[in-house]
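Supplementary notes for students who missed Thursday's class. We covered one full example, reproduced here. Read the sequence, then the structure, then the short commentary at the end.
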Amino acid sequence: MMRVIENRIFILVLFIFFIIIVSGCRDDFEEYTPVTVEMESGSEEGENKSFKILHVMSYHTPWEWTETQYQGFQDALEGIDIEYKVFEMDTKNFSTEEQKKQKGEEAIALIESWQPDLLFTGDDDAQEYVARHYTNTNLPIVFTAVNEDPAVYGYDNASNVTGVLEREHFLENLRLMKEIVPDVEKIAVIFDEDPMWGPVRKRMDSAIENIEDISFVSWDYINSFETYKERIIELQSEVDAIALLGIFTFEDSNGQNVHYRDVLEWTAENSKLPDFSFWKDRVTYGTLSVVSVSGYEQGKEAGLLARQILEDGKRPDSLPIRTSMKGEPLISLARAEDLGIQIKSKTLLSSRVVTSYGWVTIDE
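Structure (token representation):
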């Protein structure tokens, strides 16, 4: 009898020891539990609750791109009692790997201390350095304006993540450029060295297979402002137009970041080639034409997803990841006049027209 009792005690001790070991081995991120959201629990109506949402921006404010994303997100959640906090990673200015990791650690510390009910992350750096650490936890995540394949961040198999992918309107931009300057045949593409341009380049390469009357003769990845200026001067005699895409991480001779507005102002004053890009603020600072992805629309779509999670108790993985769809054509009439380009009234009437340079308004 005593032996039986001893065996049972020994088994009980082993079981308790096993529970302690398993509990101590849990990853810190897996222990995160938002205090309010109960996904598809069917218990309480979300409309009577208040929520905390942390928005982690990859970039900064003031900037139209990030501001319109955030505004669209908030508009979609109008009527729900929400307390917002915003963390700006500012990786266009703090662009080294070490700086990005530091910003990511600061955002993670804020998540752990503030315990939001939902994490809203904009653009790719916020995914890489923050959100991916919380996949398959109890923290709902909604992203927007992501260029990479969601699988890169583990989102394809994540139960707590949904959002909006950014897909540039490349072919539409080419059509608009051809409407403005029909003789364009050879185009050069400019990138900075930010990793985000990798998937953009792949999508452009895929689309180019269906283009017959335009050739892309140069793909330049540039890290310094001086190299950029030299290359733009060289291109004046080599191509008919420039796809001006990555211009954020150029450094000056002292290793300091050159603001993209200064890059665009120099370009407008020194290049005689028509150029295009994918974002509306570029036209304000001198780029000739854009069919823009909409920060507002992407933010609003993300907000609608968040609303279903918070208000209806939907699980994020029950809401399919979607792609940005709407594009807005914009033309800089000021730049067209400086380049001596006459634009058809039909093209102008179907586009948003910017009549002056942004730096003129700022200087005044």
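Commentary. The two ends are 96 Å apart (CA to CA). The chain is about 40% helix and 20% strand. If anything here is unclear, bring it to office hours.
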